[in-house]
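hiii, so i know i said id send this last week but things got crazy w the move. better late than never?? heres the sequnce for the chain we talked about at the cafe, plus the structure i predicted for it. fair warning i was half asleep when i ran it
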Amino acid sequence: MRYSGLKVITEGLFGNKGWTRAWRDPAPKAEYDAIIIGGGGHGLATAYYLAKNHGLTNIAVLEKGYLGSGNIGRNTTIVRANYFIPGNSEFYSHSLKLWEGLETELNYNVMHSQRGQVVLFHSDGQRDQQIRRANAIVNQGDDAEIMSVEQLRAEFPYLDYEQTRFPIYGGMMQRRAGTARHDAVAWGYARGADQRGVDLIQNCEVTGIDVENGVVRGVQTTRGPIRAKKVAMIAAGRSGQVAAMAGMRIPVESHIMQAFVTEGLKPVMDAVISYGMGHFYISQSDKGGLVFGGDIDMYASYAARGNLPMVEHVMEAGMTLMPMIGRAKVLRSWGGIMDMTPDGSPIIDKTPIEGLFIDAGWNYGGFKAVPASGWCMAHLMATGQSHEVARRFRLDRFRTGHLLDEEGTGSQHNLH
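okay and structure toks below
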């Protein structure tokens, strides 16, 4: 079934009885050409592009819960391409270009809204750093502009520009950045992969990875063993646990990052705002709720919930930046399990085990990377070679010292 405005009207007139399931619910087969562990955004995108770009359809995506039950549904929905250093900049540029055509590509409304994102700066040093970053972004082929305080006041009058500790000096705006509906992205890729013959198997937890003489042979699951010549570990915050099933210890720690949403409000905020001194970021959803977050909780955990001190920290940053937020009621919060690498950049690579691949370590960048991650991981699995925009996301860079330290804070999880 192809979705369209005419189809919506027709179904509305005839009792909505003609809709079909968005994807099948197949039983797992005994063997596949490739298995993807993880039914989140990255795993589903990888399956979709394996089928679409490379013609590989004998694929299974194994998800221990329901599709999209992990970090793809537990984030603040921001899409941007304002990365600075080589290796990251071209990758996220590629991802943003894919985002811009994603709804047409998938025939699915992922609610991608290019409302813009502004990163505020609060000192001369931060201004210099953001000007340098903006120049690098423009040289990469993406958009960036420096906004004065007067321009910011005209566009965002509700911010506290003269706060005592961190007065606002200006901001860097990327107009093509914005937001998307997180779970709709998973649903769109799931539907597209299913239409191309991929088996999406829910409630199927992987309990072991079979390796013989350094070669992957398949996986053990709660629904029985499944053989495969290629296996991809795309399990976000659970990456370390999944890799351990293959006898691997990977350079990833799992931390919690909390996010919050307020009651629905009238439209007030038409861009994403990032607070340079408070690591606070906020936007307004299509339902009217203010969606915001801050730092990770600074301790390793697999629990999808956070602690109260970080709640207080995020609320303080929000109140400092925009005091009017204090009148809004917070409806709910949630925690995503972040797979943090030592340098704050991801991994898309083969592993030392033949036929075993890894896509992990997305830190703060996982949601915005979904299209390019799937594109590049599919390319790697199909061809055996890294895609040109992901060639620096090597697993062995932590041993060789070729780090991608985007924030310049060094190889310490607690600093990025």
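btw The longest strand covers residues 253-264. thought thatd interest u
miss u guys!!
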